Amino acid sequence: MALRNVYKALRMRWSHDEDITSSAGYDAEDGERRVIILNGAQPVKYCNNRISTAKYNIISFLPSFLFEQFRRYSNCFFLLIALLQQIPDVSPTGRYTTLVPLMFILSVSAVKEIIEDVKRHRADNEINHRPIERLENGTWSTVRWAELTVGDIIKVSINTFFPADLIILSSSEPQAMCFIETANLDGETNLKIRQGVTATAGLLETKDLSMLQGRIECELPNRHLYEFNGVLKEFGKQSVSLGNDQVLQRGAMLRNTAWVFGVVVYSGQETKLMKNSTSAPLKRSTVDKLTNTQILMLFMILISLCITSGLCNLFWTREHSETDWYLGLSDFKSLSLGYNLLTFFILYNNLIPISLQVTLELVRFLQAIFINYDIEMYHEPSDTPAMARTSNLNEELGMVKYIFSDKTGTLTQNVMVFKKCSIAGHIYAPQRTPEESLLVQNILRRHESAEVIEEFLVLLSVCHTVIPERSDESIIYHAASPDERALVEGAHFFGYIFDTRTPEYVEINALGQRRRYQVLNVLEFTSARKRMSLIVRTPEGKIKLFCKGADSVIYERLSAQDRQYRDRTLQHLEEFASEGLRTLCLAVADIQPDVYEEWRNTYHKAATALQHRERKLEDAADLIEINLRLLGATAIEDRLQDGVPETIAALMDAGIYIWVLTGDKQETAINIGYSCRLISHTMDILILNEESLDATRDVILRHLGEFKSSTANDMNVALVIDGTTLKYALSCDLRGDFQELCLLCRVVICCRVSPMQKAEVVEMVTQSTKAVTLAIGDGANDVAMIQKANVGIGISGVEGLQAACASDYSIAQFRYLQRLLLVHGAWNYARISKLILYSFYKNVCLYVIELWFALYSGWSGQILFERWTIGLYNVLFTAMPPFAMGLFEKFCTAETMLKYPMLYKPSQNAKLFNVKVFWIWIFNALLHSVFLFWLPMAAYSSDTIWRDGKTNDYLMMGNMVYTYVIVTVCLKAGLITNSWTWLTHMAIWGSIVLWFGFVLIYSHCFPTFNIGSNFPGMDIMMLSTPVFYLGLVLVPITTLLIDVICKLIHNTVFKTLTEAVRETEIRRNDLAEVMNEPRSSDSGFAYALGKLLRSSSVLISRRSSFNGSKEFSVGQRAHSLRIEHLDLEDDSVGQQRSRKRQSEVGWATTNKPRRSAGESVMSNSSTTSTITTTLHM
Q1: CB–CB of 603/617 below 8 Å?
Q2: Is 374 annotated among the ligand-binding residues?
Q3: What are phi and psi for residue 835, nearest 5 degrees?
Q4: Fewer CB within 10 Å, N or C, the chain?
Q5: In 10 A of CB 780, how many CB atoms?
Q6: What is the pLDDT of residues 553-583, one digit of tens each?
Q7: Which of 640, 725, 710, 707 is nearest to 678 (CA)?
Q8: Which of 144, 123, 154, 165 is nearest to 271 (CA)?
Q9: Distance from first CA to last CA of the chain, Å, rounded?
């Protein structure tokens, strides 16, 4: 009676949002649904089935391309310069010296875009022109995919892709059943079953399809791959619910089914596949952001130089206008400050390198190819290489400070193996044969728990959505998840073999006895429900509900009278979880026929609702999933991937903090943490399990106070928090304290968290620390956090390709992350850093010389160099050295980078590119420009540089200076290059040769070509004076002498570990002795660092006594101990213990006692006099 009252209340609740449709089929809510007329004209015009993934067409290319290009401030800046140069008598460098290089750079980008877009157009045309059979006027005709539209009835044959989103009407299989493969949608290669409704399953002939009359009402197009709400309303028949099981999505392929008939519901760009093909959020690297900031600073300096030069011109003109009358200084333009400012603005604009962006784009593109073709990151079993899906974040891989990792499928293999089960309070494990197992023996000898065991095994073999496929003598199970397959295989181990599925029933072979169970309803698993139920009619005619799910949701639905196995099963669940096994609870309920019939009507009403269907189905399921009887629990092993412990140890040694965000049980996650070396047995574990906001606040503030009262800056503590407590911890008033507590811990594990909570945690750390974060996962539930992190890594795993498709980089196994970060990341960071710094250096070197020349030209804006040589400086003569740096520079080999993870720290801490380093390079360039101008000026001051006494003008001086600049900046590139290849040699020496070749050719262009009118004979004049050759040797050497001396002192006295390792590699010496010889005033530390490289750990331990014996608590630091050039810093005693344990052979897997939220984290009982020093590069 009480249950019927609940039904009535539920109906009243639904009546407020139920769909009430008039006899014509239209009402006020028709705008929120799609109405499709079967075999008739559609009420509205729907889009055709043509798709386009291209960015441009002939009409839109130019405006779209220009809009994209001029969203970059640098291109806008150079366009402004090019426009200003068109003003008569303003530009000192000519009208086209900026416009032509800008056009060249834009043309290169345009060609790249066109090539990529032509490929997209060709792929689109190939798809749009595929043939398909469509029913027209009672006959089948072959049309192109692009010609289909909503409402068309089509025929799809075996091994053919579905051209649009279809509702299946009938198929060659019984009961309109078919099998599909959705690898293109979610990456899952296992077959899935789809089944049409009974009302249309008999439409097997063309005439039957032609006579079909009615309409389909469904939701508007959306991007939810696993959701569909619709209703089939045939004239004169009862409405039938349509769900995701009736949908055949575009991109999926028909398998093991001869043909299907379907009606198009979504076409073209409105299909779910196309709705999901949105671009990932735009991410910019830290280096890019810093570069833009420094460009703005340089722009402000440029403005300051322009104003200063303009004022100097004004004062100089006023002073000399009367005395130097022959210069015509009384002209208005000479007296106009505005004209002079424009002149100097154009003159100094090249302080910002015009070719930097295109060089960066090309270099990053080729760096991405290096990642893609790295054979060391190729997974041969799955034929999966690493893939850089974006190249904008290559250098960001070298700066990662925090890694957020999923567990299942990321750290583990996601290949589930049934290990054991608990039934009626007893634990059983599979044996070689069913007869050998104690479980089967208990059934055969009719043990007191035999009935419970049988019901348990029936549930395992029946309650699922697995599809069996017979292959010779064996059965292959196709499951939507590895867990389901493992459970069915587990029942198979014990002799309960599932071998037949139809839309109406499933059959099993129970120890040789055939049993058929009629499937009445399937209540599917969702992340919100955390359970799956199946209502069946047994061979005896009884109605039963089989339910499996998380222990938290099963236990709260158990009958109050069912207490027989509760405590014992709960104890077994904890034992299974402590072994790192995944657990599920199994329960059953007996349903009376009258209760079921009333519930079935309620469920049908919920299933046919167009609005809020998911909520109504969930409410209906809650009504029947009650008064359950506990049968037992299962334990499935998800093995760690190869190399995970070693990879995590290396990443932690590199100074990276690793957080695990998982939906698994707390105990399972903790034990996986132990087995993968994320948690060491010397760590204290702080567990936060609270049920309210106030309790969460109290425990967070208490532990935060304990941590702050400690002298340690980095606690040797692992924080473990569940999803419920995390919900409160991420609330507005607690977020700040919670993130502070987390950042004080060495390891953080978040359990039972939702995909949105994963994203919130990543966003919290990213925004609060300003450090580079990386998220890695393999499933659709990891997409949100992958997109929130600075760098997203997707694993092409068993759960599909959704994470990989949404990521910035994809790899096949977690272990490849070590090489991706420690090798490619560190290399790319160093390469991009040098490329950017060198690009600014060479520009400042040349173009500031115009400022020094202004002192001699009366601040007139007169240029020292020929105008086209100015324009070609960046795009031709000095373009190759930075390009070679960006591709081939490396300071250590890949093997060394992997062996010594601490070499990652210079890039992680932004040692190679920061504000300080940037302005040191700018100052260095200013200093070089002084030498490069005034040394030739001093040699030129005698006025006669030929032995015949002839003189020449400023342009001869300018070309000499230009030559010395080319030689100097190319030699500077060689000076900072660590890895020389033949391409590097070609880039550096070839650039110098290229300039001399240009001089020889350009000197003879005029008057044949109307360019270079002031350059004829320049080659003869420049190459015939001994002053030029003397300067060619002395000027670059003198200019770079300071750099050589500074480099010599730095590499001798202030040598870093990176430089020491590189030099040892060059000498081919034993790296273990790289730090033995002293390089600073404290040779003792050099010896200690030599011991560091001889060990497999990253510790330097030296024992000493402080006042005899002194006590230290866990997590407490010794006194600060630092050497500036090596950045040595003391570790906590806790960290030393942790890493010592990690370096030992044979990792124990037993649990250490955990501390609950109410216990103190700090241990005051440990005594030691050990000081540990860790290398921080």
Answers
A1: yes
A2: no
A3: -60, -50
A4: N
A5: 19
A6: 899 899 888 778 888 999 999 888 888 788 8
A7: 640
A8: 165
A9: 73
User: Is 566 known to sit in a ligand binding site?
Assistant: no
Picking from 454, 464, 482, 626, the residue whose alpha carbon sits closest to that of residue 554 is: 626
More confident residue, 1084 or 1054: 1054
Q: Is 406 annotated as a binding residue?
A: yes
Q: Distance between CA 491 and CA 1173 in Å, rounded?
A: 54
Q: What's 672-729 look like in SS3? A: HHHHCCCCCCCCEEEEECCCCHHHHHHHHHHHHHHHHHCCCCCEEEEEEEEHHHHHHH
CATH homologous superfamily of 412-638 equals: Calcium-transporting ATPase, cytoplasmic domain N (3.40.1110.10)
Q: Are 601 and 773 in contact (CB under 8 A)?
A: no
CA 867 to chain centre: 46
Is 407 one of the annotated binding-site residues? Answer: yes
- The residue type at 116: E
* 387-407+641-811 matches 412-638 in fold: no
Residue entry with tokens 């196709």: 478
271-312 pLDDT, tens digit each: 888 876 655 566 788 898 888 888 888 888 889 999 999 889
Mind giving me the DSSP string for 1063-1094?
A: HHHHHT--GGGTT-S--SS-HHHHHHHHHHHH
pLDDT single digits (tens) 918-945: 999 999 999 999 999 999 998 877 667 7
548 annotated as belonging to a binding site for a ligand = yes
Reported as a pLDDT band with limits 50, 70 and 90, residue 134 is very high
480 — phi, psi (to 5°)?
-70, -20
As a whole number of angstroms, the distance between CA 967 and CA 961 comes to: 10
Q: How far apart, in whole angstroms, are the C-alpha atoms of residue 781 and residue 759?
A: 10
- Rounded to whole angstroms, the Cα distance separating 404 from 847 reads 46
Distance in angstroms (rounded) separating the CA atoms of residues 336 and 326: 19
911 has binding-site annotation: no
* CB-CB contact of 962 with 853 (8 Å): no
Tell whether the torsion through CA atoms of 1127, 1128, 1132 and 1137 is positive or negative. Answer: positive
* Neighbouring-strand partners of residue 165: 266
The answer to whether 706 is a known ligand-binding residue is: no
- Per-residue DSSP letter, 539: T
List of E strands, 727-798 = 745-751, 772-777, 791-795
Cα separations (Å) of 720 from 21, 670, 688?
A: 52, 8, 6
pTM assigned to the model: 0.72
Which of the listed CATH numbers 3.20.20.70, 2.70.150.10, 2.60.120.10, 3.90.70.10 matches domain 148-276? 2.70.150.10
3-state class of 517 per DSSP? strand
Its CATH class, for the domain covering 387-407+641-811, is alpha beta
Distance from C-alpha of 292 to C-alpha of 356, rounded to nearest angstrom: 12
Q: Which of 247, 250, 248, 245 is nearest to 273 (CA)?
A: 250
Give the residues across from 837 on adjacent strands.
Answer: none
Q: What angle do CA 125, 130, 136 make, to 5 degrees?
A: 125
Would you please indicate which residues are annotated as catalytic (active-site) residues? 406
Q: Using the 8-state DSSP alphabet, how is residue 46 labeled?
A: P
**CA separation for the pair 688, 698 (Å, rounded):** 11
Domain ranges of the chain: 56-128, 148-276, 387-407+641-811, 412-638, 823-1067
Task: Specify whether the CB–CB gap between 1076 and 1090 falls below 8 A.
Answer: yes
484 belongs to an annotated ligand binding site: yes
Q: Is 582 annotated as a binding residue?
A: yes
CA dihedral 1082, 1086, 1092, 1093 (to 10 degrees): 160
- Selected residue with higher pLDDT from 217 and 416: 217
Is residue 1059 within 8 Å of residue 1125, measured between CB atoms?
A: no
Q: How far is Cα 875 from Cα 358, in angstroms, rounded to an integer?
A: 10
> Is residue 662 part of an annotated ligand binding site?
yes
> How far out from the chain centre does Cα 221 lie?
28
Count of helices and strands (H, E) across the chain: 41, 36
